[in-house]
Amino acid sequence: MPSPVWHPYAHLKTQSPAPKVVGGEGPRFTLEGGESLLDATCSWWCMIHGYRHPRLVEAIQRQADELCHVMLGGLTHDPADRLARELVRITPEGLNHVFFSDSGSVGMEVAMKMAVQYHYLRGKPGKHRMLTLMKAYHGDTAGCMAVCDPEEGMHSLFSGFLPQHHFAPAPTASFEASEEEVTADLDALREVLEAHHEEIGALLMEPLLQAAGGLNMTSPHYLRGARALCEEFDVLLVFDEVATGFGRTGRLFAADHADVTPDIMVLSKGLTGGYLGHAATLATDRVHDAFIGDSELHAFMHGPTFMGNPLACRVALESLAVFEEDDYLGRIQRLNGVLCEELRDDAALADHPAVADVRVLGATAVIEVHDSTSLEGAAAFARQRGVWLRPFGRWLYTMPAYITGEDDMRRITGAMKDWFLSA
Ligand SMILES: *Cc1c(COP(=O)(O)O)cnc(C)c1O
User: Catalytic site residue 9?
Assistant: First the structure.
């Protein structure tokens, strides 16, 4: 009998049997049968320390020996308290309150509910819609699907089921763009805000890097401009740093490139180094303090069963300690150097007729093609070279674990390039 496991994003008729992973070490995982693959995606971008990191494994073991789980409703514990303090310390100045949940999607649902309730409690119940961007991806739950790109996103068949929000065009200025070059993108945001601000509670964005929507990159000036527009129109700014958080763009958080503090920020993928599912929604005093009041409507009515799970909090604390002690930002910079040299600056790759664009930011690189059919077979090609790639749509990308060595990084970029150049 075939396995009853129903795989995500899989076409049941054409999917090939999934290889079985039996273990992993550093940037590689091992398949049943002994094949070892260098993971160019660090498992949907979360395994930033790679597999079987001794300090992370030990942190889970020790915590398991003390306390595996207890509800956060009416109770607290040390790992949750310590992790919340650490997150306040390392995130942009002013994010002083932490609401835990169990996945990036739920972290975003929490952010959107907070924004709506914030305005409600301040006497503006009409500000109950979101403003989001084309090419956005914020998760797969119903609330999140409604703020993903409605056309290119994966959720168009659900449009009749989803609430309606407002969309602005995806930013087009590059990461390096000057302030003037960002004006048109900001004008497009302003236009939607001018027309609809009375019903817009929050502007949502994946700062600098729209990840699952096609690895679209933009400038820190765009974040600063968005911050100013949100002030002008009494709209909360929500940064979904689920993918960009913990170093992916080259700074600890994408917000750090722009020196911007959002009103709400969501973290998940890198939070526990991928070792357990968890998420955090951080809020400023302004947001938090709006919930201090006498009516029963002042309580924030949300509480995932596994929020603040002690195992997840403990391994997240260890992940942060390793990140700082082992100078991960320095490692990311070295990986970035290889990605720029091998991919961004490769003239033959840029000139290849199938290639539309090559972009690099921090420890992220993408080769965008004109037509998705030119990536058919790329994953199998890479696997023959010992590399696990998982292209989607028109994007062949890598987001490696930060412990990936330079030789292994070149092995990954080599597999990506050779797919185009060695044929
Ligand atoms: C992955 C992702 C999410 C959803 O996180 P899950 O843990 O898969 O629910 C939300 N936003 C962004 C930017 C993501 O990359």
Answer: yes
The distance of Cα 15 from the centroid of its chain, to the nearest Å, equals: 26
Residue partners of 394: CB distance under 8 A and separation at least 6: 214, 356, 368, 369, 370, 371, 372, 375
The pLDDT value recorded for residue 152 is 74
The pLDDT, as a whole number, for residue 423 is: 64
Over residues 381-406, mean pLDDT: 98
CA distances from 214 to 136, 151, 180 (A): 9, 13, 25
CATH code of the domain occupying 57-324: 3.40.640.10
- 108 close to ligand 1 (CB < 6 Angstrom): yes
Q: How confident is the model at residue 267 (pLDDT cuts 50, 70, 90)?
A: very high
Sign of the C-alpha dihedral computed for residues 84, 47, 148 and 260 taken in this order: positive
CA of 103 to the centre of ligand 1 (A): 7
pLDDT digits (tens, 9 = 90+) for 131-182: 999 999 999 999 999 999 988 767 889 989 999 999 999 999 999 999 999 9
Q: Hey, where are the domains in the chain?
A: 57-324, 327-422
51 assigned to active site: no
Mean pLDDT of 229-249: 98
The one catalytic residue among 240, 263, 346, 408: 240
CB distance 242 to ligand 1 below 6 Å: yes
Tell me which of 3.40.630.30, 3.90.1150.10, 3.30.450.40, 2.170.120.30 is the CATH number of domain 327-422. Answer: 3.90.1150.10
301 phi/psi in degrees, rounded to 5: -90, 75
